[in-house]
Structure to design on (454 residues):
């Protein structure tokens, strides 16, 4: 029921059905009264002929036999209920007066419905040459005509309603086709394709106005996004030089000062903070280029397994303070064609998180395998699991989970988002596979086309 086309089809069928029901109801009512008028006219015409014939026979007629005058397409006979001559009542059918009851005498030209036994009749009184007679026609004649009309309507109603529903669905489809194209194009627009615009419909109207407004909004968004990207890139680029100078001066001051003094300890803290600032700036620069679609890969062939193995050896030194065990499940050689520097940054960030968020005496397990169908790297670390509220946000920029804050880690919330953007640029994906049972696992996937068979 969420589809507007289906709703239009249902409403079209329902409205058509209701209109037809009202029309047929009025038509049936009119048919009913037309039939009564026709029967009444037949009663008058045939009754007058009968009374004229009865007067000529002067009472020598057998009134118990139905009149041999056929009416209403030869389906029923006129039935005599009562005949009154100039001298008095010549004939009254049994039970007629009892059933007539409070209605009293039937005046000439008067017609009514009357139940005689199990049969309902249409009766009327006719006068001719000082004779009067009350005649009846079985009401089933009218019922049959009305029933035939209703039956015919019920036979064609489903087809008409179905045709109206199909027509409503088709009209809805044609009317909504421009909106479908707009939605399809809008889904394809991302941060790197903000220059795209929605297709303008060939016919002016409400949809054309909607497209015009949305395209104007996209233009404003593109302009704002470009300004933000340029600012981030320019600021990051401009900050690199003074930070490099500052790092160089602090390094010189450290080398010239006495070891272990209070001044040297302050300088070491400053050096650490400057290094953190440089890391943030480099990350922001990469992210801004990725957002603007300008993250160009410097692709080359290298041994990915060897690169990961060397990084693990470096992080083993950092893990000694936590007595961490590193488990390697890597092939001897796995050559890929990719940006070696950017991929190295990805694995550095993943390993850094695995060490920082581990427990004392825990472990870090790295697995890598690849074939033409794809290259898969997974890293698992022990420690407190990521809470359910944070699992959907771990790749958000500057997001730090509650566990990170509680453990006092000095991360800045860009590591995983940087990994995600770099892997996307390589046509792959990265995700949080597991964070239960005391361990957390991230899996990184690269397309098999990156494999460089040797």
């Amino acid at each position: 029921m969420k589809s507007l086309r289906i709703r239009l089809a249902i409403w079209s069928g329902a409205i058509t059905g209701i209109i037809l029901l009202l029309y047929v109801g009025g038509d049936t009512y009119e048919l009913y009264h037309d039939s009564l008028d026709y029967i009444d006219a037949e009663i008058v015409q045939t009754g007058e002929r009968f009374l004229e014939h009865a007067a000529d026979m002067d009472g020598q007629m057998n009134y118990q036999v139905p009149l041999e005058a056929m009416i209403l397409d030869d389906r029923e006979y006129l039935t005599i209920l009562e005949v009154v001559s100039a001298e008095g009542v010549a004939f009254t059918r049994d039970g007629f007066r009892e059933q007539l009851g409070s209605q009293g005498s039937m005046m000439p030209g008067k017609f009514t419905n009357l139940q005689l036994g199990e049969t309902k009749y249409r009766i009327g009184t006719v006068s001719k040459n000082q004779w009067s007679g009350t005649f009846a026609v079985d009401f089933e004649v009218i019922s049959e005509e009305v029933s035939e009309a209703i039956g015919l309507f019920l036979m064609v109603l489903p087809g008409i309603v179905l045709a109206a529903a199909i027509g409503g669905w088709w009209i809805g489809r044609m009317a909504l086709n421009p909106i479908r194209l707009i939605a399809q194009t809008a889904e394809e627009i991302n941060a790197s394709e903000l220059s795209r615009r929605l297709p303008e419909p060939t016919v002016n109207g409400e949809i054309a106005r909607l497209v015009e407004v949305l395209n104007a909004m996209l233009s404003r968004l593109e302009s704002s996004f470009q300004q933000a990207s340029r600012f981030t890139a320019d600021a990051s680029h401009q900050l690199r030089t003074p930070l490099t100078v500052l790092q160089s001066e602090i390094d010189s001051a450290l080398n010239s000062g006495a070891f272990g003094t209070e001044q040297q300890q302050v300088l070491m803290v400053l050096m650490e903070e400057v290094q953190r600032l440089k890391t943030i700036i480099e990350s922001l620069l990469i992210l801004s280029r990725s957002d603007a679609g300008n993250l160009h890969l410097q692709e080359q062939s290298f041994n990915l397994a060897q690169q990961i193995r060397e990084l693990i050896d470096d992080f083993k030194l950092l893990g000694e303070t936590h007595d961490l065990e590193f488990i390697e499940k890597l092939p001897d050689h796995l050559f890929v064609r990719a940006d070696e520097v950017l991929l190295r940054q990805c694995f550095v960030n993943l390993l850094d998180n695995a060490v920082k968020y581990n427990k004392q005496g825990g472990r870090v397990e790295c697995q890598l395998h690849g074939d033409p169908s794809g290259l898969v790297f997974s890293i698992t670390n022990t420690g407190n699991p990521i809470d359910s509220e944070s699992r959907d946000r771990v790749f958000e920029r500057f997001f730090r989970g509650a566990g990170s804050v509680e453990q006092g880690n000095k991360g800045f919330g860009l590591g995983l988002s940087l990994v995600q953007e770099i892997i996307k640029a390589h046509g792959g994906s990265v995700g949080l596979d597991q964070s239960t049972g005391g361990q957390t696992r991230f899996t990184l996937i690269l397309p098999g086309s990156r494999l460089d068979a040797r």
User: Anything to note?
Assistant: The first strand starts at residue 70 and ends at 71.
